[in-house]
Design goal:
The protein is mainly α and 282 residues long. The protein folds into 3 domains: 2-91, no CATH class; 100-211, Type II secretion system (T2SS), domain F (Receptor-associated Protein, Up-down Bundle), CATH 1.20.81.30; 215-278. Helices cover 87% and strands 0% of the residues. The chain is built from 12 helices and no strands. α4 runs antiparallel to α9.
C-alpha cells in the first residue's frame, strides 16, 4: 500500500512537472531572452554598434552554457553551476552599461576640442551648420557620430531646439547639457555663439582636468576597496587547499551555503561603502 502511494505521488509530480511547470518555465525563459535581446540590441544601436537580435540571443545562450559546464567541471555541483550560470543573465546589462560609460567618457574628452574648433571656424566666417559639418568630417568616434546625427535631423526638418534635446537624450552628460543650454540661450537672446562655445570649451576642459586630479587622488582608496573585497576570497581559497575537508562543508551543507551567501552580501555592501566614500562629484 505504501509503495502504491509513493508511486502515485511520483507519477503525479512528474505529470505536473511535464505538463505545467516545464512549459511555463520554457515560456518564461523565452520571453526573458526575447525582451533582453531586444533591449540590448536597441541600446547597442544607440551607440552605433549594430548587432542582430538573434546574434544577441545566441551569445547569451553560449555564455550561459559555458559558465554552467565550466563551473560543473571544476566544482562537480549541479546546483552551484546552475546558480552561477543564472548570474550570466545580468551580463548583457552590465556590458551595455560599461560600453555606454566608456563611450560617454570618449565623448567628453573630445567635446572641448570640438567646441573650440566650431568656435574658431565661426569666427573665421562660417555659419554653425558649415562649422558642424567640417568638425564631423575631421573628427572621429562618438563626437562625430552624435553631431552627425544632429546635422541629419536638422536637414530632415527637425527644429533646432528639438534636435539639441535629442542630442542630449542620446548623450545625457552634464557637460553637454551646458552646451545645449548655451546654444539655446544664444539663439533666443542673440550674441556671439562663437564666444559662447569658446567659453564653454574652456570651462569643460577645466572641469575635466579637475575630475582627472580627483580620480588620481582617490585611485589608491578605490584600489584598497578592491583589495579588501578580494582578500577574503583569496584567504578562503588558500584555506580550501590547506584544509579541504573542513572547507568542503561550505559547498555541501545548507549551512555552508548560507554562510557563503552572507559573505557575498557583506563583500558587496563593504565594497559599495568604500566606493561611495572615495567617489567625489565635481
Amino acid at each position: 500500500m505504501m509503495q502504491f502511494i509513493v508511486v502515485t505521488c511520483v507519477a503525479l509530480t512528474a505529470f505536473v512537472f511535464v505538463h505545467y511547470t516545464l512549459p511555463a518555465t520554457s515560456a518564461l525563459f523565452k520571453e526573458y531572452g526575447e525582451r533582453t535581446s531586444t533591449i540590448t540590441a536597441s541600446s547597442l544601436t544607440d551607440m552605433f554598434i549594430f548587432i542582430e537580435e538573434k546574434r544577441v540571443i545566441h551569445m547569451m545562450a553560449g555564455m550561459w552554457a559555458f559558465s554552467f559546464f565550466l563551473t560543473w567541471m571544476f566544482s562537480g555541483k549541479l546546483i552551484l553551476a546552475a546558480v552561477i550560470s543564472c548570474g550570466t543573465a545580468l551580463l548583457p546589462k552590465f556590458t551595455v552599461n560599461f560600453l555606454r560609460r566608456r563611450r560617454q567618457a570618449r565623448f567628453l574628452i573630445d567635446l572641448p576640442d570640438a567646441l573650440l574648433g566650431i568656435s574658431n571656424m565661426m569666427k573665421a566666417g562660417s555659419n554653425l551648420t558649415m562649422a558642424l559639418e567640417t568638425m564631423v568630417e575631421e573628427a572621429a568616434g562618438p563626437i562625430a557620430q552624435e553631431f552627425g546625427l544632429f546635422l541629419r535631423e536638422l536637414r530632415m526638418g527637425v527644429a533646432f531646439e528639438e534636435a539639441l534635446d535629442n542630442l542630449y537624450a542620446r548623450m545625457p552628460v552634464a557637460e553637454l547639457q551646458l552646451v545645449v543650454a548655451g546654444m539655446k540661450i544664444s539663439r533666443e537672446v542673440g550674441g556671439s555663439l562663437a564666444d559662447v562655445l569658446s567659453r564653454l570649451a574652456d570651462t569643460i576642459r577645466r572641469r575635466l582636468e579637475m575630475e582627472g586630479k580627483i580620480k588620481s587622488l582617490t585611485a589608491q582608496g578605490k584600489m584598497q576597496g578592491v583589495v579588501m573585497s578580494c582578500l577574503p576570497i583569496f584567504v578562503g581559497y588558500l584555506l580550501y587547499h590547506i584544509e579541504p575537508a573542513a572547507m568542503a562543508h561550505l559547498f555541501t551543507d545548507y549551512t555552508g551555503w548560507g554562510v557563503c551567501a552572507v559573505v557575498i552580501v557583506g563583500e558587496y555592501i563593504g565594497y559599495r561603502f568604500i566606493k561611495k566614500i572615495v567617489t567625489i562629484d565635481v
